[in-house]
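in:
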């Protein structure tokens, strides 16, 4: 019986798809990830449909949508009702490990997480959440003693992952070792941006940063400062990726390992006059997704898959975070639990004649928003984006409704920076064409809402249904 592949799943926090050399960014230095892209399935339209930390992570761990697992806001607890990714792999004979940021326990960001709330992971070096990357604590195993990562936590966490890989491969050919699922979750490049090690911060000057055209002039100076620090984090993590990949080679298990690199969501960083995430624009929803598995031989000629210097690009799959778990289980030939709602793309990746199992339309949602003013290209407050929304990202269009009605419509093919909202009174579009598009896309959106039993209610209604407590800002409070 052929041994199952190992799985190494690595993700950064708030790392948007536009911040890599292989995606066309000429300033940021990501040579190791660029090389990985040359060896990987590169899902060029991967999205985070609910682009905020805890909801995305809960969907990653369960394969479910936020209104099913209940983590549709930050800092609430993920239940044990679903069979988790760790439990599903463990049932398939795998050892499981998790290192780094967790952020689905909802019982204080610095508190100990007992075994029964770890979703089935065995090896455990984790903290719920911190963004103090140079004074970072964690808990190991079943001990409630706080320990400290040495220096910049992402580097120390990577070294721990390398030790885990080394220990898993240190055995004779006669000793049967079970395959493993290793998940490594970094806190950077999430803010604070200016805290990467000095040798990486020295690589970037704000004046050398090239801004996306959708950053208004009023935010340009701050965006350059933030991006310089953000890029420093990215390059530090890129070096970590290089060491991880080298460790797999040195252990002699690279050929037998599925290696995934991705992110939980993106970061606006001044685009559209906005910061952070939880927004329906490209900088917030688009994430990297590279999957390297040397035994996965795929040749899919045609318009939707191309062989380029950026590897095997797959542009007709809008894979979302709930799809990660079933796809990995499918690639490992393991059963997918009935509790999973995401799509398994493994057969499509394995065979040239397989049909795409989805309609190639990503569902976008914000169920309960923390808000901020959006600053327009004229420098002044434009509108308040702290709103619930539902929407679609198709291969060409982004269409979004707020509770008040249709809100955004972009043709991402002709307007990649989303500067022309076709629903705006000042839009440079044919109103009849826009109305026809809205009718078509709104019908598709309503079908998805019905399939998910999503009645698109005000966020506070969901808060009350799930019994969550909010503070005077209307958000779930967290404690350290």
């Amino acid at each position: 019986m052929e041994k199952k592949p190992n799985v190494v799943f690595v993700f950064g926090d708030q790392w948007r798809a536009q911040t890599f050399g292989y995606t066309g960014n000429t300033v940021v230095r990501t040579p190791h990830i660029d090389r990985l892209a040359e060896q990987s399935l590169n899902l060029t339209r991967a999205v985070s449909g609910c682009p905020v930390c805890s909801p995305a992570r809960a969907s990653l761990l369960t394969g479910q949508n936020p209104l099913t697992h209940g983590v549709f806001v930050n800092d609430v607890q993920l239940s044990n009702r679903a069979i988790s990714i760790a439990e599903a792999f463990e049932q398939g004979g795998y050892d499981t490990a998790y290192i780094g940021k967790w952020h689905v326990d909802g019982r204080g960001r610095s508190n100990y997480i007992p075994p029964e709330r770890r979703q089935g992971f065995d090896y455990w070096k984790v903290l719920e959440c911190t963004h103090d990357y140079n004074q970072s604590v964690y808990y190991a195993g079943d001990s409630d003693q706080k320990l400290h990562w040495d220096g910049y936590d992402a580097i120390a966490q990577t070294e721990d992952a390398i030790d885990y890989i080394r220990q898993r491969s240190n055995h004779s050919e006669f000793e049967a070792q079970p395959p493993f699922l290793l998940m490594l979750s970094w806190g950077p490049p999430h803010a604070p941006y200016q805290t990467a090690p000095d040798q990486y911060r020295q690589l970037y000057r704000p004046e050398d940063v090239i801004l996306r055209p959708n950053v208004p002039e009023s935010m340009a100076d701050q965006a350059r400062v933030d991006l310089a620090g953000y890029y420093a984090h990215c390059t530090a993590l890129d070096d970590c990726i290089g060491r991880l990949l080298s460790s797999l080679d040195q252990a002699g298990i690279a050929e037998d390992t599925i290696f995934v690199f991705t992110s939980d969501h993106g970061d606006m960083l001044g685009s559209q006059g906005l910061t952070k995430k939880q927004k329906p624009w490209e900088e917030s929803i688009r994430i990297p997704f590279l999957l390297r598995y040397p035994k996965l031989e795929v040749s899919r000629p045609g318009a939707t898959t191309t062989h380029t210097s950026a590897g095997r690009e797959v542009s007709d799959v809008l894979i979302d975070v709930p799809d990660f778990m079933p796809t990995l289980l499918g690639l490992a030939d393991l059963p997918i639990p009935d509790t999973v709602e995401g799509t398994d793309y493994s057969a499509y990746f394995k065979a040239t004649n397989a049909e795409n199992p989805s309609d190639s339309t990503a569902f976008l949602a914000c169920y309960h928003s923390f808000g901020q003013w959006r600053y327009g290209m004229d420098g002044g407050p434009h509108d308040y984006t702290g709103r619930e929304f539902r929407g679609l990202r198709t291969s060409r269009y982004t269409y979004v409704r707020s509770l008040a009605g249709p809100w955004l419509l972009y043709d991402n093919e002709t307007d990649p920076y989303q500067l022309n909202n076709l629903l705006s009174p000042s839009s440079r579009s044919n109103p009849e064409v826009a109305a026809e598009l809205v009718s078509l896309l709104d019908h598709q959106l309503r079908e998805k809402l019905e399939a998910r039993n999503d009645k698109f209610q005000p966020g506070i209604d969901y808060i009350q249904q799930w019994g969550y407590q909010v503070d005077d800002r209307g958000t779930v409070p967290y404690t350290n």
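note: Residues 299-310 have pLDDT under 50 and may be disordered.
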